[in-house]
């Protein structure tokens, strides 16, 4: 359940996520012994703070905007083997609650990817509010979670001869967010 939170400087209104100063990134195991890092370049969202201080979050990711620094790999990830972006072009997150967790927060919500919606929890840190650079105040956050790709119907298996798989099941998501208060 979401209740009013003491987020100093985060006034009521809509705080739009600034895609130029934010990152939707991830890591996944590759060949058991290393990690591939990537990001999504096309995303949007907002943090809405009600007059009583109750927060809510909504975000959308254009899945085809994936970038792992390899065009060949990105093309394969966009295919029906993984994301199937032609059929499922968008991933969405809608919060269902925000609660304090010590000095930080947990954002509970529904995440939809590959046509499957599952509850997720994001461990979040609030960095505060800055007056900005002439366009109004900005707020900063970081949020993290781990998802299992198979929970979202992305179940391709590419086993290795010696055990393990080419691509791990666990995906670590890291969100670096700067949001500006809308007039």
TrEMBL record:
Coiled coil: none annotated. InterPro entries: Lipid/polyisoprenoid-bd_YceI, TTHA0802/YceI-like_sf. Residues 14-180 form the Lipid/polyisoprenoid-binding YceI-like domain. SUPFAM superfamilies: YceI-like (SSF101874). PANTHER family: PROTEIN YCEI. Belongs to the UPF0312 family. This is Polyisoprenoid-binding protein.
């Amino acid at each position: 359940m979401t209740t009013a939170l003491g987020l100093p400087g985060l006034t009521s209104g809509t705080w739009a996520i600034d895609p130029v100063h934010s990152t939707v990134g991830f890591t996944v195991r590759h060949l058991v012994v290393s990690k591939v890092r990537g990001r999504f370049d096309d995303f949007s969202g907002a943090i809405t703070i009600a007059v009583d201080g109750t927060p809510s979050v909504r975000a959308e990711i254009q899945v085809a905007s994936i970038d792992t620094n390899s065009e060949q790999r990105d093309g394969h990830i966009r295919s029906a083997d993984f994301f199937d972006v032609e059929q499922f072009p968008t991933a969405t997150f809608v919060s269902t609650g925000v609660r304090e967790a010590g000095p930080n927060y947990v954002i509970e919500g529904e995440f939809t990817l590959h046509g499957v919606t599952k509850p997720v929890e994001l461990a979040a840190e609030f960095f505060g509010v800055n007056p900005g650079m002439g366009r109004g105040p900005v707020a900063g956050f970081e949020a993290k979670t781990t998802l299992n790709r198979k929970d979202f119907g992305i179940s391709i298996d590419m086993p290795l001869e010696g055990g393990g798989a080419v691509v791990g099941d666990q995906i670590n998501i890291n969100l670096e967010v700067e949001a500006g208060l809308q007039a």
